Amino acid sequence: MANNKRRNVDMVKLFDFYRIEYKTEGHKHCRPGWINTVCPCCEGTAGYHLGYNLAEEYFVCWRCGYKPFWKILSKLLRIKEEELGAVLKAFKGSSTQALPVVSTLNIKDHKLPSSTSEMAKRHLDYLVSRGFNPRELRDAWHLMGTGPISMLDGVVYANRILAPIFWEGKQVSFQTRDISGREELSYIACPEEREIIKHKHILYRLPDPPFVSGKRLGIIVEGIADAWRIGRYAAATFGAKYTPEQVLQISKLFDVVVVVYDSDFAGRTQGDKLVAELRFAGIDARREEVAEDPGSLTEAQARDFVGDIIRRYVHN
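Given the sequence above, the corresponding structure tokens read:
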């Protein structure tokens, strides 16, 4: 992913020639637009964990992460990396015609839960209690609120702040945050069948990542409230369990990445893993921590924290 030059390799023909077993459908790890095979780097039970993305031409193992193209392909073919150039020339082309046509059935129109409107006093009060400026958040992130009775496809969205999720200028999904303190699930997302793009395939962020000294800085956080606090440099992955698609988007959008997941075990573990995958992709990445999570910072603390990141990792 660090090398943006198109390779145009017919990976299906290549795998067939080298007798590498693969799947394009009918397996739990298979997804549209991917070829899956056994990862030569994984330990434990074998499976079709290694995926090759046909459109973006990169490898990701669903178990052990992003894999550099040349290294993993040399392992699969059992040849030296310096021999790959000649092999790839012999298999120029596209694999897309070899894949089954995948149609999506029963997809519903994208819509918001009932009684969604501008935030009422109870929503504004909740944000104030969290130390946010509600009107600034409303204007920047287009936040809305749901009423005491709110439903969509049988899911209850009552008494929540609703955060629309935009991608390339279009609203494609949403996530909600409970304001009552009584619900088991603090966050509930849009039903998957109503998402134009799955929210776990993209990032929650403001448009047009800003440049700092000619570099695009991304501060990667877990949740939407973390992104509200960090502001224009933030991009949230909707939880610590990120996806390969999100790794790809981060690598495309940012030159310098600082992962600031929560300070609990899951946050530290996943944060370290994400940094490692981004570095494999050639991205300047590292991890930082705050006492609990970015959303718990005060406005002044967040401003100082971001300023410190810029001084140490961008201007330095």
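The CA atoms of residues 173 and 199 lie 6 Å apart. Try to locate this feature in the token string yourself.
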